[in-house]
Amino acid sequence: MSLDYTTEQQVAVAAVRRACHLTSSVFNKLVKNETLVKGDKSPVTVGDFAAQAVISTILHNAFPQDLIVGEEDASDLRAESGKEMKDRIVALANEALTEELALGDNTNWGIGPGQEKTDAEILDAIDRGNHEGGSTGRMWTIDPIDGTKGFLRGEQYAVCLSLIVDAQVQVGVIGCPNLPIDPAHPENGTGCIFVAVRGKGAQQLTISGANPTPLSIPPTTPESLNFLESVEAAHSSHSFNDRVSSLLNITRPHTRMDSQAKYCALARGEGGAYLRMPTGVGYKEKIWDHAPGQILVEEAGGIVTDSRGEPLNFGLGRTLGENYGVIAAGKDVHPRVLAAVKQALNETKAKA
Ligand SMILES: Nc1ncnc2c1ncn2[C@@H]1O[C@H](COP(=O)(O)OS(=O)(=O)O)[C@@H](OP(=O)(O)O)[C@H]1O
Ligand SMILES: [Mg+2]
Ligand SMILES: [Mg+2]
Ligand SMILES: [Mg+2]
């Protein structure tokens, strides 16, 4: 039975749109004391916190029972040392929640002019993302800024939201404010939203939520195939991708891009394959870094697995558990990439 997720899709697009508006305007005004370094040494900005607060508030108004797995938490902002940053985040989140965007998207979910939230409500909205995940029931994932390093460089980043029901991703929405609307026509500007609903296909919208264009991954020719990969060498192994690419006789250079914009580019026919292999032992991929990208690529006709060909498991908690690496590609290309990845892994084992 295919359930109807029309309302979830509408709310998710509205939330991502507002968050994209916020992150784009924050980028131009970011100052030094608006970025923190987290316990795992990764950066987080006022934009990440405020965008999570906005999305979480809108979700909670629309679906008060739903659980949320969000990347960020507000503990640093509740400390005395976080006061300045907290004040800025509350102001940014309220601005984004109350401003009137087009399309009347502020009418149904308890947001809009005069509906400012208190400091405590904004911090609680961020912390509502503390759910531990699991294999049953409804939960949303929020990655308020995926590719924070790309965001800080002024390059690609993505505002990412998904609805997971009983461990299956049912709705995925990804906002990419810096992604060209049409890669063949850069003069048309940047800013797109990607939407997928299980069984209903994938679409690209404008950043204002209009002009839905269906997406489907075209068959790849040897000449058009290349890999999409992370910018940060610490996040995925560039040398492994080089080896797989030479096993497949790929001659085009890799396309490097931060964030789930890679899944979006793949879904509209750029590249042909996204390959992400771990650089060392110990790091477990987070569900919010892959859930919306997975449904987007699958609904555009592609396949997403780990490096052993296993499906990504979104029911194990906040991480993908033992899933090792990610291969996303069109249906025709995926089996070939998987075979080459297995061969390259065997070579690595033989050398060890
Ligand atoms: N060691 C390691 N290995 C693999 N992945 C890691 C690692 N450390 C961090 N991360 C996660 O990478 C997310 C960003 O990866 P990306 O694919 O967006 O882009 S890039 O690697 O920065 O180019 C990034 O997401 P954000 O924190 O939302 O930016 C992290 O969740
Ligand atoms: Mg982060
Ligand atoms: Mg991320
Ligand atoms: Mg993030």
Structure overview:
The model has no long low-confidence stretch (mean pLDDT 93). With 352 residues, the chain is of the alpha+beta class. Helix 1 crosses helix 4, helix 2 crosses helix 5 and helix 8 runs parallel beside helix 9. The strands form three sheets. The protein has a seven-stranded mixed sheet with strand order 3-4-5-6-7-8-9, sandwiched between helices. A five-stranded mixed sheet has the order 11-10-12-14-13, with helices on both faces. The chain has two domains: 210 residues, Fructose-1,6-Bisphosphatase, subunit A, domain 1 (Fructose-1,6-Bisphosphatase, Chain A, domain 1, 2-Layer Sandwich); 126 residues, 3-Layer(aba) Sandwich (D-Maltodextrin-Binding Protein, domain 2). Bound molecules: 3'-phosphate-adenosine-5'-phosphate sulfate and magnesium ion (3 copies). The site of one magnesium ion has 3 residues, from strand 4.
Please identify which CATH superfamily of the largest domain we are dealing with: Fructose-1,6-Bisphosphatase, subunit A, domain 1
Strand order of the largest sheet: 3-4-5-6-7-8-9
The biggest sheet amounts to: 7 strands, mixed
Kindly report the average pLDDT value.
93
SS elements, strand count: 14
Q: What are the bound molecules?
A: 3'-phosphate-adenosine-5'-phosphate sulfate, magnesium ion
Poorly predicted regions: none
CATH topology assignment of the largest domain: Fructose-1,6-Bisphosphatase, Chain A, domain 1
Which CATH class of the largest domain? Alpha Beta
Q: Strand-and-helix sequence, N→C?
A: HEEHEHHHEHEEEEEEHEHEHEEH
Q: Percent of residues in beta strands? A: 15-25%
In the CATH hierarchy, the architecture of the largest domain is: 2-Layer Sandwich
